[in-house]
Amino acid sequence: MNFITKLNAAWAANDSLLCVGLDPDIERLPVQFRDAPDGIYQFCKEIIDATAGLACAFKPQIAYFAALAAEGQLERICAYLREAYPHIPLILDSKRGDIGATAKQYAREAYDRYGADAVTVSPYMGSDSVEPYMEWQDRGVIVLCRTSNPGGSDLQFLQVDGKPLYQHVAQLVADKWNANGQCALVVGATFPEEIRAVRDIVGEMPLLIPGIGAQGGDIEATVRAGRTTSGTGMMINSSRAILYAKPQGGEDFAAAARRVAEETRQAINAHR
Amino acid sequence: MNFITKLNAAWAANDSLLCVGLDPDIERLPVQFRDAPDGIYQFCKEIIDATAGLACAFKPQIAYFAALAAEGQLERICAYLREAYPHIPLILDSKRGDIGATAKQYAREAYDRYGADAVTVSPYMGSDSVEPYMEWQDRGVIVLCRTSNPGGSDLQFLQVDGKPLYQHVAQLVADKWNANGQCALVVGATFPEEIRAVRDIVGEMPLLIPGIGAQGGDIEATVRAGRTTSGTGMMINSSRAILYAKPQGGEDFAAAARRVAEETRQAINAHR
After folding, report:
1. Minimum CA–CA partner of B25 in chain A
2. ipTM surpasses cut 0.90
3. Would the pLDDT of B138 be above 80?
4. Domain Orotidine 5'-phosphate decarboxylase, which positions (chains A, B) (predicted)?
5. Is A160's CB within 8 Å of B156's CB?
């Protein structure tokens, strides 16, 4: 089953457009996980088990593992996801971008080593920096288009032939890089009008949308701008708001994460 | 000693603008290294020892290590470089680019974990994706500007206000991101006229120039276009042509690497 098919099935099975981001910042983990040798793995495993029924995808952010030399724990997390929840797409968020020979090594990292269904990539180095990923025909390539951070505008909003650069990226991916139907785009929730502009360019192509939760994006505006005719088409990511949800009543961190994930899923579904 | 000072000293000490790239493709290593548990480390160590007197920098490409789950060997290579050749800058080639909170993790990876003097980054996500690196005030940030690969033109050559995008990146780095004097730029040897255009924009800022050797860039044209008034200003990278140099006579791989590195250093110096 290829990435897009798997994603469509996960949207339906869990009635969810919520992508749960796994950004395990060691300083914010519950205290019992901070000093354990596999504390990051154990923490992420509990988050995964608590939210798997509510998510259309899981997205580990590799930077948090790389900073701590914890690639081994990321391998275990990915193996656990593939084994316990094989129907939920696993997206490796690594935003790689390099010349062809090097990109092939990064594709091996994402697809063979971690077994990811899809990987995020940067478009700055152009076509031959993404082509090597396409050799894994059942996997997905999620290209940065309009990012959710303030500095995103520095380049992405520069005007090229009367249109901002990010729209050229969307067009390039829709017209060329998506020839095999393996592509998706990253478009931040902090810019709903721009989600709409991208949706108009790319038709039914899936969008990975970071920026709700801790980054402050508006869920209603995001969903209205990004939904396809079938009311799907989006992986709306929340990381920190779920991972570090404040427990209420007798909740532990995992129950709090589940509650916030469920609230987010419902808030999204209210506007589909 | 900060990155730029260290680089200036290395240019002078070894009379060299040659950067030796460490891209250990397991399939191309001499057979004795392919199956050894630390074969990549041993291979790179021999290349480093053979070329350290001829190089102004070493640049490991992390993708080759990540594909093989060999980050531990990269850590050992970096530790060896810092210990045995502390006067030669260590550049981690990882081309990261992410939102601020994530970029900080990548900065930790490059500077704290691997002890790199500088790291390559992508500009696509803008200012807050590079600012976190600047907190390590003695380190360098090398921003992708005009890359050496064919697809580099897809975005970098788009016209913005009558100038190609890569020149806007050069201007942005020169005017803003380089406020603390920590920046350098990547400009490919495959486009000497564009090296000249970037040099005109950025003054004395160092340029990391890949694309000679296996990628076919012209050394004379590169040096004439990129040199500063002092005849330096460049880290001209060669990876595969040195690592996999064909032995002549009774040479082993390391002697062949040293010979090609010396030839390249001299070919560069002939035009400074």
Report:
1. A105
2. yes
3. yes
4. 17-260
5. no
Query: What are A225-237's pLDDT values in tens digits?
Result: 999 999 999 999 9
Q: Cα separation of A213 and A265, whole Å?
A: 12
Query: Distance, in angstroms, between A75 CA and closest chain B CA?
Result: 10
User: 3-state DSSP call for residue A6?
Assistant: helix
Residue B258: exposed, middle, or buried by beta-carbon count in 10 A (0-12, 13-18, 19+)? buried
For residues B195 and B181, is the Cβ–Cβ distance under 8 A?
A: no
A177: its two tokens: 């890089």
Of A109, A124, A168, the CB nearest to B123: A124
Q: Other CB atoms closer than 10 Å to residue A35's CB: what's the count?
A: 9
CB contacts of B69 in chain A (<8 Å) are 71, 75, 113
Structure tokens that stand for A247 in this block = 């427990």
- pLDDT tens digit sequence for B36-55: 999 999 999 999 999 999 99
Domain that holds residue B194: 3-269
- Contacts of residue B249, defined as CB under 8 A and 6 or more positions apart, other chains included, come to none
Residues whose CB falls within 8 Å of the CB of residue B183, separated by 6 or more in sequence, listed in order: B140, B141, B142, B143, B173, B177, B205
Task: Give the CATH number of the domain where residue B170 resides.
Answer: 3.20.20.70
Residue carrying the six token digits 């996999």: B244
Residue A46: count of CB within 10 angstroms of its CB: 18
- The question of whether B95 is a catalytic residue gets the answer yes
What residues of A are in contact with residue B157 (Cβ under 8 Å)? none
- Residue A271 structure tokens: 């506007």
Q: Chain B contacts of A144, Cβ < 8 Å?
A: 97, 124-125
What contacts B227, CB < 8 A, 6 or more positions away? Answer: B233, B234, B271, B272
User: For residue A229, how many other CB atoms are within 10 A of its CB?
Assistant: 8
**Residue A151 touches chain B, beta carbons under 8 Å:** yes
* Chain B neighbors of A154, CB-CB under 8 A: 123, 126-127, 172
Cβ distance A167 to A118 under 8 Å?
no
Q: How many domains does chain B have?
A: 1
Using the Cβ of A49 and the Cβ atoms of chain B, whether some distance falls under 8 Å is answered with: no
Interacting residues of B247 by C-beta distance below 8 A, sequence separation 6+:
B253, B255, B256
Please state, in angstroms and rounded to a whole number, the distance separating the CA atoms of residues B133 and B111: 9
